[in-house]
Amino acid sequence: MNDATGGSDLASVASIFRPGLLDGQVALVTGGGTGIGLGISQLLAELGAHVVMASRKPANLEAARADIESRGGKVSAVQLDVRDPEQVKAAVDGIAQQLGRIDVLVNNAAGNFYAPSATLSPNAWKSVVEIDLYGTFYCSQAVYPIMAAQGGGRIVSTSMTLHYRGWPMMAHATAAKAGVDALTRTLAVEWAPQRIRVNAIAPGPIPTEGVRKAFTPPADSGVPDVFAAADARMAEYAKKGIPLGRWGSPRDIANMVAFLASPAGDWITGSIFVIDGGEWLAKAPS
Ligand code: HXC
Q: Which residue ranges have their beta carbon within 6 Å of ligand 1?
């Protein structure tokens, strides 16, 4: 049973996957302590993986770690800024040394905010492109030798749907995510001989705290502010704007990551999976 604002019956959804499906596997989830990343960390841990959550802000990881541990999950946390390739390499090598392998990388860390392209500062542009695109490349490159040496691995990166059309005031994020799509396809082909499957997910509207913050447009911008709407308006948006009639939840995204991380995804690489209840297809051109 789902409600219009994205709540799911997590217990019934979790039972879709066989317990122990990812036993013995190690998964690194960037931005893994909050929002969609947390939902992914929780599900991969529930399925038996040792999850390493990475975040720039260690405080973001503590509550998540305690939560996963309290349910019997294997979890650790590492402080990491995905924009720093040396830091990324050191963290990834440290995880491999400590846990013996890295089977799954989830490139979930992202930064975003609405800002007019005409006045976006070079540093603002750089911050978002570096987190979303460079960070995805640095983390993928860092796990490559480990996955190649162990005979394979799975990388799942995070894209979006907003660059399928023009999306005012999101030049930085849409350009970066288009790059993530291209990178996904290229790495998939380049690393297939090493049995590293590379795919991406493109989440639709999921009202996590980070997304609400990033997607609240300036008041005078003329861009509709669906997240800031009162609950009744959110329900109305779900009814009118999302063909499947409800907002998404982190678990909706985590389910696809678990599928791709499992042997069910064994012949899938270079694909970008839109998970949005049909939203972008139905959106009126802006
Ligand atoms: C204009 C802004 C801005 C804003 C920051 N900047 N916010 N410019 N409008 N709202 C500018 C700053 O002025 C600065 O430029 C530059 O960006 C860097 O800002 P810092 O705060 O110094 O950077 P940093 O601390 O590194 O933070 C990075 C960040 C931040 C991207 C700016 O928002 C962040 O860390 N976000 C992570 C969380 C997040 O955004 N999650 C949402 C992901 S949702 P100057 O020139 O002044 O130095 C998502 C959507 C998925 O990705 C798809 C759903 C449909």
A: 110-113, 115, 121, 123-124, 127-128, 131, 160, 203, 205, 210-211, 214
**pLDDT tens digit string along 177-227?**
999 999 999 999 999 999 999 999 999 989 888 777 776 777 777 776 766
Render pLDDT for 121-148 as a digit per residue (tens, 0 to 9): 999 999 999 999 999 999 999 999 999 9
**Distance (Å, rounded) from C-alpha 91 to C-alpha 166?**
36
Looking at ligand 1, which atom is closest to the CA of residue 173? Answer: 52
Q: Where are the domains of the chain?
A: 18-111+128-205+248-278
Q: What is the DSSP string of the chain?
A: ---TTS---HHHHHTTSPTTTTTT-EEEEETTTSHHHHHHHHHHHHTT-EEEEEES-THHHHHHHHHHHHTT-EEEEEE--TT-HHHHHHHHHHHHHHHS---EEEE---------TTT--HHHHHHHHIIIIIHHHHHHHHHHHHHHHHT-EEEEEE--SGGGS--TT-HHHHHHHHHHHHHHHHHHHHTGGGTEEEEEEEE-----HHHHHHT---TTS----SSSS-HHHHHHHHHHH-TTSS---HHHHHHHHHHHHSGGGTT--S-EEEESTTHHHHPPP-
**What's the pTM value of the predicted model, to 2 decimals?**
0.92
Measured in Å, residue 210 CA sits from the centre of ligand 1 at 11
Protein residue whose Cα sits closest to atom 36 of ligand 1: 111
Tell the CATH superfamily of the 18-111+128-205+248-278 domain.
NAD(P)-binding Rossmann-like Domain (3.40.50.720)
Report whether 131 contacts 110 (CB < 8 A).
Answer: yes
